[in-house]
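> Could you send the 2,4-dienoyl-CoA reductase (NADPH2) prediction when you get a chance?

Sure thing. Input:
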Amino acid sequence: MSQPFQHLLQPLDLGFVTLPNRVIMGSMHTGLEEFPPERQAAFFARRAAGGVGLIITGGISPSELGVLGPGMCAMLTEADAKKHKVITDAVHAAGGRICMQVLHAGRQSYHPLNVSPSGKKSPIYPFPPQAMTEEMILQELESWVNAAALAQQAGYDGIEIMGSEGYLLNQFLTVRGNERDDDWGGDFERRMRFPLEVVRRIRARVGTNFIIVYRLSMLDLVPDGQTFDEVITLAKELEKAGVSIINTGIGWHEAKIPTIATMVPRGAFAWVTRKVKEAVSIPVSASNRINMPSHAEDIIARGDADMVSMARPMLADPDWVNKAAANKEEEVNTCIGCNQACLDHTFALRQASCLVNPQACYEDQLIYIKTDKPKNIAVIGAGPAGLSFASVAAERGHNVTLFDQDTQIGGQFNIAKQVPGKEEFNETIRYFGVMLKKYGVNVQLGKRVGANDVAEFDEVVLATGIVPRQLPLEGVNHPKVMNYIDVLRDKKPVGKRVAVVGAGGIGMDTSEFLVHDPHHVPSSLDIDEYLREWGIDKTLQARSGIEGVEAQVSPSPREVYLLQRKNKKITGPGKTTGWAHREALLKKGVNMLTGVEYTKIDDEGLHISVNGQPQVLAVDNVIICAGQEPQRELQAAIEALGKTVHLIGGADVAAELDAKRAIRQGAELAAQI
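Output:
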């Protein structure tokens, strides 16, 4: 029998070191960088033990001017290098290899001392930068070299130079960030001088037997970015300068195009990586929305890339590579690209984790230890909270029976997965199904449970979720009124003109469902459709991949009004993805109204007042997405039997459909019960 995933798992010889496979754990800031290094050591060592070929740390600044925010991590002194030795020793002891990413934020930082080639402020960061003088340029150049040498001293196997996502090196390369007319700006040859000098000087300092990965911005996706010819020119020069591996970077943080959210198709930019790979002879790695072994295997087998780089999938499942090697892809806990516990936390300066794997970044705190006192535990509700608890409790050795009145597991995820752009939620349901079977959970579906059904169990976990909140509004029982469950789960017919009441996550998801033709393949599943919808030039003739390209959006089958009480812009939940969902709805022509007061619903439609001005929306249906209530009516009856009842997920707190909290709460309870 041939080896599974033979392209993905093939060793890669860099001349002075051989990597065991083609998998890079990509860089991602987790917040652990600001804790004692032992926590990072546990985090990275866990991934090294999971089989990753090469780990890259979160971004670490080479200077005080280049940090992402006040007090954030930098590699400046031998004392800093000594602290990092704990991390590299742990990774090497686990059989892994690790590079430190050197990241100079430039103008993309949260502190007032930031610098940039020119004094142009970023549109999304708070502080204007100081334009770098010649002296500052030379000083920052030397700081890169110093950081690389210290990384080598700390035991790192190499570094990754962060040259994409709009950080300092990317700023030097583009007219958008560099309006200089001296030796460091002007034509492209001068604009690329700074990044090339960084590489040349580092290579001269660290010698030949040290990995240098360069994260190359292959598509800037912002006005006044690089042309693709410039990208290729730089790639060839980077190879000459001594780079070992080129890694793919796509889009600045300022770009108004989603590049890693779940609405982006898998491997949406591997075709760009292929073009760079064809121009150089050193290994090139693909990135962005690669999350399963079979997909990664296809990318390498097709010749799109020599390697694949994945950050968030390694949060979701540290054993991703080992499971691929064992041909157990069905056991992979798939990253669903939600960003809710990782990037949303990072940009809010909170410690990251993972929605589908709450142990991520908590390896030294949330530990699943085999129990020596197995209990018989009933779990009522097979949504995210119940699935999380049941699988972890059974893994620890408890005897778990999982009940649900539905005929399938998944709970609210079965609703969410209906929304175009959220198809990945299927993967989480699949993963939990495999775990329930693996750990011997007794699953009882299609059964409505009463208190007497759980009378013989030692403890009961109530994970019965939520019910939609009813609005105290005249006419709320009118035949044209529905709630989001009627639409997303029960597929009740919806008219051509629709008002969605409530613009939170549920309201936006419902609107997304309504503006898609069910017979049309959504852009989240079709790369060409995605590129058309967001105005990206697949011929790579347009500067930055976007200039002069018109977005082409399939028309909505309905006229949709999305209504919000608050008198502020509708943004949706999640700092890093909410804007993208809003933009997608605007592209489909959704009418977004804020400052709305609801008066009544009748045959004419929905009567509202917007900023004091009354009007009637003559709609066929009004869909209520105005919150939820906990569903916990069984609690009192079970407790009356003398049983301990634990409330988790929506049965405990009915916030927005908060799978992140539900899965973590289930796992934490299961770890200690």
